[in-house]
């Protein structure tokens, strides 16, 4: 930073200001982000530090001997931001600019591996993050390159979910939507005053399905939605986005054609995804009595329905619109060809794993 600009900052602060270089670890220890941006600030015993730039493990910052008011901190942030960033920000509303800043911080925290980072006090939207918010992550895959206007998205989401929603852009065509957990209060429990977890998950799935339908009808194109249980955003926002992003990735990888993804439904998929590919291939080679077993659409649809209905024969038959005896015939045929009876727990686990792995390997 040149001497003239430093003198201008001293005049604004009404106090001596010096440029210091500190270790990034010291910055983080004082409460700063692992991925600091120009204008970010932390308070230490020796004064207030405002980041100028980071280079590797070192951080250049301004040190103010006195504490700064929120207004002063925001002023110095604006002064230190690159001019291009300030120009771009001028095209946004205050809410959108604040939301994008928070989204950038979330993405930087994920990239830096700081999944347990808590939302710093410096963000204007922190006072709109209250305990018990429902997180939705939406990823759009539209064919064209047009960017959906933030204000239009926000308006539609508010009309569908609630006026209290908070829309946060994370990456291109990826949005985090936070809604109030009072939406779950509409789910009535016949026996309990407190909503059971199964009812909560059913309600969350319904909300996510409606959100997906609304988005596709309004803007077209394919999109994927993941939803989680209510969270405390100030404490777990980064980890939640990371988890929902992983949920969509695994859902798309193992379940083609599914657009609404639930974290509590992909535990096995997460485990299988972590197994080395060579191990997965060897397992399939050892277990597959018939290499063409899962190439039959009828076999795949029958097994998918059977596992979706928790291996219940009667409910599976209803879902497939076939007679119960027809389903039993198909399961017996599978047993004869593979030696595995999916009505047995151990065999059902093996076939479930084989089916998931086949869906991944067949596309390679």
From TrEMBL:
InterPro entries: CdaR-like_regulators (IPR051448), Homeodomain-like_sf (IPR009057), PucR_C-HTH_dom (IPR025736), PucR_C-HTH_sf (IPR042070). It holds the Pfam family HTH_30. Residues 301-356 form the PucR C-terminal helix-turn-helix domain. Gene3D superfamilies: PucR C-terminal helix-turn-helix domain. This is Helix-turn-helix domain-containing protein. It comes from Cohnella thailandensis. The lineage of its organism: Bacteria, Bacillati, Bacillota, Bacilli, Bacillales.
């Amino acid at each position: 930073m040149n001497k003239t600009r430093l003198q201008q900052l001293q005049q604004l602060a009404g106090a001596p200001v010096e440029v210091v270089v500190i270790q990034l670890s010291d910055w983080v220890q004082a409460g700063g982000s692992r991925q600091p941006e120009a204008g970010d600030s932390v308070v230490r015993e020796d004064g207030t530090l405002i980041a100028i730039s980071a280079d590797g493990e070192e951080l250049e910052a301004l040190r103010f001997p006195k504490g700064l008011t929120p207004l002063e901190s925001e002023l110095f942030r604006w002064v230190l931001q690159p001019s291009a960033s300030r120009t771009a920000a001028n095209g946004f509303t205050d809410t959108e600019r604040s939301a994008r800043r928070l989204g950038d911080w979330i993405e930087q925290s994920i990239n830096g591996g700081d999944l347990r980072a808590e939302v710093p006090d410096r963000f204007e939207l922190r006072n709109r993050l209250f305990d018990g918010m429902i997180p939705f992550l939406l990823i759009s895959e539209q064919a064209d390159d047009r960017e959906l206007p933030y204000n239009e998205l926000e308006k539609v989401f508010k009309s569908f979910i609630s006026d209290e929603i908070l829309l946060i852009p994370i990456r291109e065509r990826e949005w985090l939507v936070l809604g109030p957990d009072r939406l779950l209060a509409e789910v009535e429990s016949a026996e309990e005053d407190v909503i059971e977890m199964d009812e909560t998950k059913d309600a969350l799935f319904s909300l996510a399905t409606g959100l997906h339908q609304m988005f596709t009808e309004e803007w077209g194109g394919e999109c994927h939605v993941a939803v989680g249980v209510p969270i405390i955003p100030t404490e777990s926002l980064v980890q939640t986005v990371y988890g929902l992003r992983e949920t969509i990735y695994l859902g798309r990888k193992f379940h083609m054609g599914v657009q609404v993804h639930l974290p509590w439904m992909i535990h096995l998929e997460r485990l299988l995804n972590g197994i080395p590919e060579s191990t997965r291939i060897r397992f399939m080679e050892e277990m597959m009595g018939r290499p063409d077993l899962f190439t039959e659409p009828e076999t795949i649809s029958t097994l998918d329905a059977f596992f979706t209905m928790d291996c219940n024969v009667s409910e599976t038959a209803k879902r497939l619109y076939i007679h119960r005896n027809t389903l039993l015939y198909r399961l017996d045929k599978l047993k004869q060809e593979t030696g595995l009876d999916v009505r047995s727990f151990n065999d059902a686990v093996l076939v479930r794993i084989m089916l998931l792995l086949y869906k991944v390997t067949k596309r390679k």
